[in-house]
Amino acid sequence: GENVEQHPSTLSVQEGDSAVIKCTYSDSASNYFPWYKQELGKGPQLIIDIRSNVGEKKDQRIAVTLNKTAKHFSLHITETQPEDSAVYFCAASVANQAGTALIFGKGTTLSVSS
Amino acid sequence: KAGVTQTPRYLIKTRGQQVTLSCSPISGHRSVSWYQQTPGQGLQFLFEYFSETQRNKGNFPGRFSGRQFSNSRSEMNVSTLELGDSALYLCASSDRDRGNEQFFGPGTRLTVL
Predict the structure, then answer these.
(1) Is the peptide bond before B8 cis (omega within 30 degrees of 0)?
(2) What single-letter DSSP state applies at residue B25?
(3) Residue by residue, what is the 3-state secondary structure of A33-70?
(4) Is-contact B90 B34, C-beta < 8 A?
(5) Measured between alpha carbons, how far is A54 from A64 in angstroms, rounded to an integer?
(6) In chain B, which residue ranges form alpha helices assigned H by DSSP?
(7) Residue B87 and residue B19: Cα distance in Å, rounded?
(8) Residue A58, strand partner residues
(9) How many contiguous H segments (helices) and E segments (strands) does chain A have?
(10) Distance between CA A106 and CA A4 in Å, rounded?
(11) How far apart are CA A15 and CA A87, in angstroms?
């Protein structure tokens, strides 16, 4: 089955710096890759996603890149702010008629200091 | 639109008991998925329901079961609770007709003593 590895497990940056989180997946059939942000006491919040027919997607300060050949995808956050501090999860899935079972990485704890 | 709601938010049970958790998806969403989150194992997929039918199942023992009602609300049940079942149980809803995005609720924190 699918396996998702996520690095680093913790990341500390200064406000205004960029942060990059990387994930690799094992199942070449995976075609949907969302990123979630989880704050303390809350459920994961979808922040951006990418499908396998696209190499890059951007939404304001957040961007995701996908390399299907190497089976890895990355989250880029620019101009980080203290409110970006949270745990970030990547996930991979084979989205088809049967459904979408997300397989998650172990998470990255991002700390942004001002 | 209101988000995904889960009840109860917190639950304390003892070993051997059973528990039922409830999830109400976003209005119009007919797919509901359940996940278990623990510090050691992270987020793990339990099962997915669509139109009252289980469409996908993760690698969990048969003690974990679920169902979905005609109004898309879903319940999951865990029987014969074990200490290791202590976790945050998350429900996510999606609108299959509009893509694969899953939107999570706040979760139910289950503690097994």
Answers:
(1) yes
(2) P
(3) EEEEEECCCCCCEEEEEEECCCCEEEECCEEEEEECCC
(4) yes
(5) 10
(6) none
(7) 13
(8) A63
(9) 0, 11
(10) 8
(11) 17
Burial of A90 (0-12, 13-18, 19+ CB in 10 A): buried
pLDDT tens for residues A56-66?
999 999 999 99
pLDDT in tens, A67-82: 999 999 999 999 999 9
Are B100 and A45 within 8 A, CB to CB? no
Residue showing tokens 């913790």: A10
CA distance A53 to B23: 33
Looking at the partner chain, which of A89, A99, A107 has a beta carbon nearest the beta carbon of B31? Answer: A99
Instruction: Identify the residue whose tokens are 């706040």.
Output: B106
Asked if residue B93 lies in contact with residue B32, where contact means CB atoms within 8 angstroms, the answer is yes
List the structure tokens of B60. 């969990």
b/e sequence A18-31, b meaning 16+ C-beta within 10 Å: ebbbbbbbeeeebb
Residues of chain B found within 8 Å of residue A41, distances taken between Cβ atoms: 106
Please state whether beta strands A19-25 and A72-77 pair in parallel, antiparallel, or not at all (unpaired).
Answer: antiparallel
Please tell me the distance from the alpha carbon of residue B106 to that of residue B61, in angstroms, as a whole number: 24
Q: Give the minimum alpha-carbon distance from B107 to chain A in angstroms, rounded to a whole number.
A: 6
pLDDT at A42 over 80: yes
Distance from the Cα of B59 to chain A's closest Cα (Å) equals 10
- Quick one: average pLDDT of A79-103? 90
Nearest CA in chain A to B53: A98
